[in-house]
Amino acid sequence: MNPEDLLLLVTREMPYGKYKGRLIADLPGNYLNWFAREGFPKGEIGRLLMLMQEIDHNGLKPLLEPLRKGRGNVRR
What we know:
Layout: H1 3-9, H2 29-38, H3 43-57, H4 65-69
Helix pairs in contact: 1-3, 2-3
């Protein structure tokens, strides 16, 4: 894991699909689990979705809160 990826989770928006425009960190667990079952996309978005699924699955979402608070312009 690249530490910068954690920051991308709270700043990068989902570029397509049902949750287009929502921050990766705010995607629901069932959507992330769907990707885990069906396959993650290639490239950066797939890497971020995979990381977020692991974080969500292991109950580690609170670890992202300090990154959110440090970014006053992050949409929720």
